[in-house]
TrEMBL record:
One of the protein's GO biological processes: carbohydrate metabolic process
Name listed for the protein in its UniProt record: Polysaccharide deacetylase
Domain of life: Bacteria
Length: 300
């Protein structure tokens, strides 16, 4: 049987419901966590129409989840964001501004040097500070601080963009494996709670108490090829036998009562499809990505 189909996804949700799990959006868990509960988190990295399908399915089962949208064209859809919220789901911001702000910071530095940004490629080689020929250790902290400032400014703008459509009280970082930046680093300097944000999973969930499952890498045991989405508790979970490769493995563990009582499950809806061609395309592309990510991890 093919995994990562809507058929398998539906079976998993129905099994969890049958085993007595309730479902809470992340914001509701933060405010008043249920004792036996699933937080169903959706990272809408691309193909938002797939997220609408899972949102409709979940709503038909009486399930409310959390959907985190990026503000890039492959994720951001005004109509879909509004419809998912109308179905009763939480909508949050899937931020990546430490990554996206790098171009603005680089452009600002070039302008300070009197260069035209459009000639950045050729001008960099003429400037020893930008080309790496000059020791910049003294300026490194200032550069990081400026980068964080630019990322925070962009974060605030994008947060208000989504809030112009629906209420947003939680956020979740987007972890691109190709990026040199950790998007959570904004919060080394700033406090998202000052913006009316009550939670970010990587800061506001105690994963010593909450079990974490993610389909990162198009597998449920993809932590070995995950660059960003890692939990320090993974070794303990492995010792406890809480490692699952397939959706069927999770279903069987639920039926046998082996799952912990509080779980966050992260899914990427673009991975899940009943249609053969999109399913096969995602399989091939993700397998290639996993090889690349494995190599990146080995080189770090």
């Amino acid at each position: 049987m093919r995994d990562f189909t809507i058929i398998q996804y539906t079976k998993m949700l129905k099994t969890l419901l049958a085993q007595g799990f309730s479902f809470q959006p992340f914001f509701a868990f933060i405010e008043n966590p249920n004792p036996k509960v699933i937080m169903l988190r959706h990272d809408v990295d691309k193909l938002p129409e797939n997220s609408l399908k899972t949102a409709q399915l979940e709503a038909s089962l009486g399930i409310r989840g959390s959907y985190y949208f990026r503000t890039v064209p492959c994720s951001y859809s005004v109509e879909i964001i509004r419809e998912i919220a109308r179905l009763g789901h939480e909508v949050g911001y899937h931020y990546e501004t430490m990554d996206s702000a790098r171009l603005k910071v680089k452009g600002d530095k070039l302008k300070e040097k009197g260069f035209e940004v459009k000639n950045e490629r050729s001008k960099c080689s003429e400037d020893p500070d930008l080309s790496g020929l000059k020791d910049r250790k003294d300026n490194r902290e200032a550069d990081i601080d400026r980068h964080i400032d630019a990322a925070y400014e962009e974060f605030c703008e994008k947060l208000e963009l989504i809030r112009g459509l629906v209420p947003v009280t939680t956020i979740c970082m987007h972890g691109s494996p190709q990026s040199a930046y950790d998007n959570k680093d904004i919060w080394r300097k700033f406090d998202y709670k000052a913006l009316g944000v009550i939670g970010e999973p990587y800061f506001d969930i105690d994963f010593d108490k909450v079990f974490y499952l993610t389909d990162t890498g198009r597998r449920w045991n993809g932590y070995k090829v995950s660059v960003r989405d890692k939990m320090p508790q993974q070794a303990r979970w492995a010792r406890e036998g809480l490692i699952f490769k397939t959706t069927t493995d999770i279903i069987n563990a639920a039926k046998s009562g082996r799952l912990p009582n509080q779980i966050m499950i992260t899914v990427h809806p673009q991975r899940w499809s009943n249609a053969a061609i999109p399913w096969a395309k995602e399989l091939v592309l993700q397998n290639i990505k996993n090889v690349v990510k494995w190599a990146m991890i080995r080189m770090r």
